[in-house]
Design a protein that fits this description.
The complex is a heterodimer.
Chain A: H1 3-15, H2 26-35, E1 42-46, H3 53-65, E2 72-73, E3 78-83, H4 86-91, E4 94-98, E5 103-105, H5 110-113, E6 117-121, E7 129-136, E8 140-149, E9 155-166
Parallel strand pairs in A: 2-9
Antiparallel strand pairs in A: 1-3, 3-7, 4-6, 4-8, 5-7, 8-9
Chain B: H1 5-13, H2 17-39, H3 42-58, H4 69-88, H5 95-100, H6 109-118, H7 123-134, H8 139-146, H9 150-169
Helix pairs in contact in B: 1-2, 2-3, 2-4, 2-6, 3-4, 7-8, 7-9, 8-9
Classes of the chains: A alpha+beta, B mainly alpha.
Amino acid sequence: MSQDQFESKSKAIFSGLPQVEPSAFFAARVAARAAKGTSSEVWIWRWVAALSVAAVVGLTSYIQMQPKQDLLFTYEPYVIQVDFNQSEILLVDSAEIELPEGVSFVSKNEAVKSLKKLRLPVTDRSKGRLPFVVVSERSGDVPLQVKMYNANDELIQTKTLTLHFGKKS
Amino acid sequence: MGRALKEIVEAAAGGDQTAVKELIESTQSRMFKFCLVLCGDPVQAEDLSQEAYIKALTNLKKLKEPGAFIDWLFRVTRNLYIDQRRRHREQSLSPEETEKQEAPAHEMTEILAVHKVLSQFETDDRLLLVLVDMESYSYKDAGEILGISEAAVRSRLFRLRKIFVEKWQGPETK
């Protein structure tokens, strides 16, 4: 093959590749992290329970109405994601999330909604993340405590995630 | 009709959060494919994309030419990718372990096949092939991103394309 033929063939291989997209809400998630100043351990993005039209409309209005200071609104559900570092990924088997007064878990299960502590298994280590959904009636700084346990049920780490909620005007 | 990229970048640099999201949405497909070809793993590719966007977005005011956002983003990605490879070299999977990984989504299989061939090249060589032959960068612009001369791009590409095509076709077609 000549130089031109190798060039054409190489370009043809690449041009035959399909378009791919990152996971859902990638842009919203990254925009939120960039707005928060980045290296936070918590990634927060809008929780859309189902891909319904209503949810999409809600998300759009959220983005348009989002004030500069408060990233999270009271009375609105959010996915909170605990990131594990490399050593934690290897050790953590489950995590217990403890909520302060005025903050509740969001779940289809009614019993879960009334809990103040919830223990969640780490089912997918490859992601290194543990997501859960909360809603807050409180505005201001809201601390969430996360206790990490190993497979022997021993406490190996405690973290406090502080979220800042504001009232939607 | 959507805004021009330059306009979106300027709005995003001015703190418009809607523009930040619009900027990501308008470039994420290209960016994710770029990272996926380099990393060969959707989770790693998304993490790399995310870190690159955050780094680029938090320094957006430093970008002198808003129209060159993508070039800048690729340059940031290249630096992060090199750092990442350096950091994770000892943890990288062997070819046998890679085979055992979860089957990728159908649309990704071809991209991962290209990655498998590219993974046999040096980091900057694979970046050069992807920038010029996938992203259609000129030799001059690709050279600027990688910090090498246009002449070096030309001579390296000649060699790289030959090896890449031969490896892609397999030994039976040589």
